Amino acid sequence: MIPPDAFVDRTPAGLAAEIARLVSDGTLAPGARLPTVREVAAALGVSTGTVASAWRALADAGVVSSRGRAGTFVRAERREWLSPRVQGMSADRMPGAPRGLGAGGEGPTAPRLDLSLGTPDPAMLPSIERALTLARPRADTGRYHDLPVLPDLYDVLREQWPVRGVEELTVVDGALDGISRTLDQVVRFGDRVAVESPGFPYFFDLIEAAGAVPVPLETDADGILPASLAHALALGPTAVLLQPRAQNPTGVSMSIERARRLANVLLSVPGGTRVTVIEDDHSALIASAPPVTLALWLPGQVVHVRGFSKSHGPDLRIAALGGPAAIVDRIVRRRMLGPGWTSRLLQSVLYELLTDPRSTAPVRTARLIYRDRLDRVAAALRRLGIDVGDPDGINLWMPVRDERAALVHAAAEGIGIAAGSPFVVETEGSAAGPRVRVTAGSVVENVRLVAEALARAAHAAPLS
């Protein structure tokens, strides 16, 4: 039994913080079983609801896991198919949790607000029911050697592409699939790849999986710093991987002037014209900023990936990829040795979603709603002294005093947020302060209360 005098603050947040400290310093080892809620409540003289809230906060922060009647245990390891970076991205989730702000309530049904996911609000996604009825009623058997992209969809994508006259387009199984396949074609073992830091953890994993070395690029409110790109190019990278809009995790959308300056750096630095630029426009249809691509100046070097997960649903698993034919054609040929093509049935669904007014209107509305939600959360945080810039898309990047303390304190109030460390390439001399990612696009109501809870988490003192 943990000594009762170890718990000075006997609120849910205080109990959760003390348990987290004991885990951090090794007093509670991975796999250790916590006392039952009733045992702790009796020993400390508090209600079982208070202890239950603390245990839920620890579970939401990923410190412990519940095994039902077997008890609650210090988390030992996570799912092996997820990398350590990805495991650390989001809080554990409680299925079926209602929307709203959890105020550290003591009842077993205290509401939860999970802002750790980085996924779109399901209520903002267009219904695919009509698209399914308009698409072909059954998978077209066709022929194995047919064109990999439906001609009608190809024409729509080409018309909507951010640069006119793109050499070649294809469709892949999601944005990460397109980025992975592009890296496979242009990066070899031992190469360097310049990538934004903070950036998307999956990118770092993909680079390392290719046997390459990530070279971090610094950013500001307009995107990648030109001086940082010039410094990275001096190291001879094979590729540059960036997010032009609604950058994950910061929410920054690159300005057209910054894109022009970055293109000029690539054109002027020795070796820059041999570098492949890979752009992940994952939030293309819900970002407020206008389309931007370095392909306006470097058409022969840029592979642009347009994702539809944020706008139409992650499970659609489809994205468009366009750029120089020399690279895109190699990607298409390599896919023929595996999946061959993206399901033409799904392509038909996407075509309807992009052309039917009853499907395009909800996406335009979602863009405005996300803009309003982020603006309101960011403004509320600024009033509390926390500057998160002017984020676009669905995420914001919040400075905190201590990452782990912020996660635990937010969870104690019923809010899940994502740890910031997985989003950063650790380098010697890195001076960036701790941050967390908040999917503010999921804040539907109680904005002031949510912001106040986030501010308390941001100011929480270290746990050890």
Distance between the termini: 21 Å
What would CATH call the architecture of the domain at 138-357?
3-Layer(aba) Sandwich
Poorly predicted sequence stretches spanning 5 or more consecutive residues: 93-111
Instruction: Give the CATH topology of the domain at 138-357.
Output: Aspartate Aminotransferase, domain 2
How many E strands?
Answer: 16
Number of distinct helices: 16
Approximate strand percentage? 5-15%
Assigned CATH class of the domain at 138-357: Alpha Beta
Give the overall form. globular
Helix content: 25-40%
The profile of the biggest β sheet is: 7 strands, mixed
| Structural class label | alpha/beta
Mean pLDDT: 88
Rg from alpha-carbon coordinates:
24 Å
- CATH H level, superfamily name of the domain at 138-357: Type I PLP-dependent aspartate aminotransferase-like (Major domain)
Order of strands across the biggest sheet?
Answer: 4-12-11-10-9-5-6
Topology (elements, then pairings):
Blueprint: H1 12-24, H2 37-44, H3 48-60, E1 64-66, E2 72-74, H4 84-87, E3 113-114, H5 129-134, H6 151-160, E4 168-172, H7 175-186, E5 192-196, H8 201-209, E6 213-217, E7 219-220, E8 223-224, H9 226-233, E9 239-242, H10 256-268, E10 276-281, E11 302-307, H11 309-312, E12 319-323, H12 325-335, H13 344-355, H14 357-383, E13 396-399, H15 403-412, E14 415-416, E15 418-419, E16 435-438, H16 447-458
Parallel strand pairs: 3-14, 5-6, 5-9, 9-10, 10-11
Antiparallel strand pairs: 1-2, 4-12, 7-8, 11-12, 13-16, 15-16
